[in-house]
């Protein structure tokens, strides 16, 4: 498996914003990119239980507003809004935490744009890992979507996992993490703190131990 990392990551626009959600500090990461297909086909790819396993994960449940869904081995939640083929929203529940996703599709010429926003309350996980904690994972997911739309075929998940453990896969994680570090800084984070968090997140996704963090005034 050989992937053009620049083609996958380069056209993606990323942003991070901070705001109050129901009186609590929250953050949202947003990814957006164009795909060489129409809105109807892109909608089918991101919502159809027949197509989702071809590039992402098998899904089951009651896939309508108010219904519960479950991604195999990953998040589940409740579908809170759906307006085919333009948008859907859902809770994203994993490991006891509840976050929120919103997906919007728009037509731009003969292409279709996907915009994904993932919102979370600012808690310990965000403080330690920053936006890359979800951003790198979504970069991986949308890479799968791109490869699927290119070929129409289903990805070989075993091959994908093997690639992620390869040098090229680790380079993908590093470049994605650096892109999210830059978005974190643009979103208002202190550059030094953003680097600490992105280094920690990259190490996690690469299966490496977390880097040692130098503390000012101690030299260690």
UniProtKB/TrEMBL annotation:
CDD domains associated with the record: SRPBCC_CalC_Aha1-like_6
Domain Activator of Hsp90 ATPase homologue 1/2-like C-terminal: from-to ranges: 37-138
Q: Gene3D superfamilies in the record, alphabetically?
A: 3.30.530.20
Family per similarity comment: Belongs to the AHA1 family.
Name assigned to this protein:
SRPBCC family protein
| Pfam hit, one | AHSA1
**The species this protein was found in:** Phenylobacterium conjunctum
Read off the InterPro entries from this record.
Answer: ASHA1/2-like_C, START-like_dom_sf
């Amino acid at each position: 498996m050989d992937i053009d990392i620049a083609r996958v990551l380069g056209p993606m626009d990323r942003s991070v914003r901070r705001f109050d959600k129901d009186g609590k500090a929250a953050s949202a990461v947003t990814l957006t990119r164009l795909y060489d297909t129409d809105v109807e086909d892109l909608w089918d790819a991101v919502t159809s239980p027949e197509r989702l396993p071809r590039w992402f994960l098998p899904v089951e449940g009651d896939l309508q507003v108010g219904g519960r869904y479950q991604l195999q081995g990953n998040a589940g939640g409740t579908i809170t809004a759906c307006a085919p083929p333009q948008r859907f929203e859902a809770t994203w529940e994993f490991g006891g935490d509840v976050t929120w996703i919103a997906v919007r599709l728009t037509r731009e010429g003969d292409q279709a744009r996907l915009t994904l926003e993932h919102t979370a309350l600012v808690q310990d996980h965000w403080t330690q890992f920053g936006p890359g904690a979800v951003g790198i994972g979504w970069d991986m997911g949308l890479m799968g979507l791109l490869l699927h739309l290119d070929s129409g075929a289903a990805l070989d998940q075993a091959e994908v996992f093997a690639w992620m453990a390869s040098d090229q896969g680790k380079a993908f994680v590093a470049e994605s993490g650096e892109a999210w570090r830059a978005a974190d800084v643009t979103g208002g984070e202190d550059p030094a703190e953003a680097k600490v968090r992105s280094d920690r997140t990259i190490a996690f996704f690469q299966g490496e131990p977390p880097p040692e963090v130098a503390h000012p005034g101690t030299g260690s």
